Amino acid sequence: MAMTRRLLFWLAFAAAAAPAGAQDRFITVASTTSTEQSGLFGFILPIFQKSTGIQVRVVALGTGQALDMARRGDADVVFVHDPAAERKFVSEGYGVGHRDVMYNDFVLIGPKRDPAKVAGGKDIAAALQKVQAAQAPFVSRGDKSGTHAAELRLWKEAGIDMPAQKGPWYRETGSGMGPALNTASSMNAYILADRGTWLSFKNRGDLGVVVEGDKRLFNQYGVMLVNPVKHPHVKKDLGQTFVDWVVSPHGQRAIAQYAIGGQQLFFPNAAP
Amino acid sequence: MDTLSLAFREAAGLIGRGDATLTAIVALSLQVSLSAVALASALGLPLGAWIAVHRFPGRQSLIVLLNALMGLPPVVVGLLVYLLLSRAGPLGPLGMLFTPTAMVVAQTILILPIVAALARQVVEDAWREYDEQLRSFGVRPFGASLTLLWDCRFSLATAVLAGFGRAAAEVGAVMIVGGNIDGVTRVMTTAIALETSKGDLPLALALGLVLVTLVLTVNAGAHVIREAARRRYG
Amino acid sequence: MKSPESLLPLTIDAVTFVAGGRVILDRISAEIASGPRTVILGPNGAGKSVLMRLAHGLLAPTSGAVRWQSLERRGERRRQAMVFQRPVVLRRSALDNVVYPLKVAGLARTECQRRAFAALERVGLARLADRPARVLSGGEQQRLALARAWALDPEVLFLDEPTANLDPGATREVEAVIAAIHASGTKIVMSTHNLGQARRLGDEVLLLNQGRLVERGPAETFFRQPATAEAAAFIKGELPWQ
Fold first, then answer.
1. Which of A206, A256, B201, C32 is deepest in the core (most CB within 10 A)?
2. What is the pTM of this model?
């Protein structure tokens, strides 16, 4: 009895330990939920792996969380979309070799019945002012993500100091884009989302795009290596290979090719 | 209701065509949770039996603590293990973060109190019955705890199953220490969380149905084995 | 079979046992020698079970001492055994139940199996050797407990009201086994509240009442001509309620 149990335990442990050591050429990339959930990584990473043999393990969190994780040294590369936070990250000495990779845009999503009467508009600041005036339900991610940071920037552009000036109509979920969209869908609320996640989001309910095209809705993604001086264990050669590939013509083409329903999600704009 | 019927159909489809991704996720889920259960039992059953049979100062407080730890929130365990295994943490050099091993560690910590607390209760109840006879034979407390563990094996099997159920169902711990990495640390519960957040509710529900079926199957299998053994050994 | 240094006589020296504020045994002194079957008689609540457990070593006296003549324990081996009112059987086969204490005592595996099977044969349970012990009847389980104790080849066997829970048929079978154990050279010390059983099985009688040793003597004398009024009242069934 005791023997059988011991045997089972070792078998189970061995089985669990096996996958961990299976792949030696891999890097850990801290990224955002928008890049993973839109399906972009599912598309471009196999191309990268085929070309270099390096497995990319993506841990998808919000931008704030991703950068914090990298500060702790738990990632080799970061791939996020909050230029201000990225600059801070580099100036703190945690990131090196920052490159712009691609952009997409944010869109204001809202319910069909549009209580704030913003549909079809091209001015995001004006639209946000109308939402606040109408006290229409608005869902915010509230999670220090790139999208959240952008949202707060846009409120500022509209002359509103969020979340200081929030009311009961402003709902902070503290969650990723998907769960926030789920909440907005069930509440019939307005929400700022990146187009990539919106295009691949399936639980739309009565929601649709109400405002788009404003230049201020531009959403820039950047990539960089975690500083190997701060964290010597960082896989700097493999990581740099990934960074270089993503901004290379090959990588940029792969990004441009990714589409949902014929619509391109991300637009490569790496400087040559 | 519409989503539900869609989910049932999707679940049947996934299982029926033996979807490769699903199979991999199911295999990893079983690997992680069963390993955690094995480890937690190997540690927790003797621990529970030891506490049941020995008397020492602070014993009552330890029992209360053990019982309370059964309700440890998975996300808290995940956070603590993450801080331990993070490169910035004490066990960072092991490089165990975001691997199935880290998930096994987190789940083992999560279910160890369950197995130990239930084992203690079962063995202590039995000890009251067996105490005098075993001492009459001159059995030492350590030997007594082993004998009781084996004699109470049917009740203890239920404790182990309770641990497995908890491990297989939790998402908080494995999400944080595993990172839900596609193809590496994605298990059923984190996959369900992902599909939910992508808004693909039918798929999420379908995966949920698969998970529930899995846990049911394990429990049914254990029940059959237990009943057969019970008939043989009383 | 018996070592040159016998365990007996067992000296019970002014033993008092207090529990929960109550005096359960009050300065009991007696010497138990080898040979005759000793019966500890008395009504319920007299303290018989506690006295048995003190003698066997399961309890420690509050004051006084229990002394054997030589070392009661040789390594892992105990030289005395006890059978309780309710037999405690493990969740395994009858044979494995008898093997268990032999293994604890450190015997080799083959020796354990041999002795266990022989013991089962002697108590008439050989055909039930592979049956799960827990499904046996009360009488069969008690005989199993006796086989288990017998297999240890103890010098002294304590029995605490071994047939109190059994029907007359099972009682007869158990008493037959006890007689056989006695015939094989083991000293029998048995407690009971049953006069008939005491008459059948006792060679000498110790009467306990309310924690005191009331009277002691050879069985024949005790039953025919009790020395104390208390003993006489007990035999007639007229002992006052506790």
1. C32
2. 0.84
